[in-house]
Amino acid sequence: MKPRGYSGSWIGALAAAVVGLFGFGAPAQAGTVPVDQAPQAWVTYAQRISAHFQAALEGEAPAAQRFHAFLEQRMQPDAASGPTGVPVVLSIRTWIGATGRVTQVEFAPFGDPQAEADLRQVLSAQSVGRAPPPGMRQPVVVRLSLAAQL
Questions:
Q1: Where is the signal peptide, in residue numbers (predicted)?
Q2: Is 143 exposed, middle or buried, given 0-12, 13-18 or 19+ CB atoms closer than 10 A?
């Protein structure tokens, strides 16, 4: 069941999420591969991860619904300061095991331990259905847009 007042997806452009890097760290660090230099099999697999994350975050699981409720509450403008606390884009560092299951996710904290735990729970419960392509570096950094989509 959708939270009361639910008027669309808060996980806005996830289907078109930018898949950032393959490997650990920022683009300038050794060992990372920018998406435009990655083999097509890696990019396709990362898009598969994005699609699974999108479906999970739009799902009916209690943790997904709590995360939606958190976003709706946080996106309500505060009279003094406007929307508070949640970045518009979250970078999610994702590790996938040999069976295709998500084994670990990391992201910068955004100030609400329960919402962070819910997001981690939803994403960590995913399986992308198959192992990463041979030689694919991890973590895969997936950027999730949290803009409202009506």
A1: 1-30
A2: middle
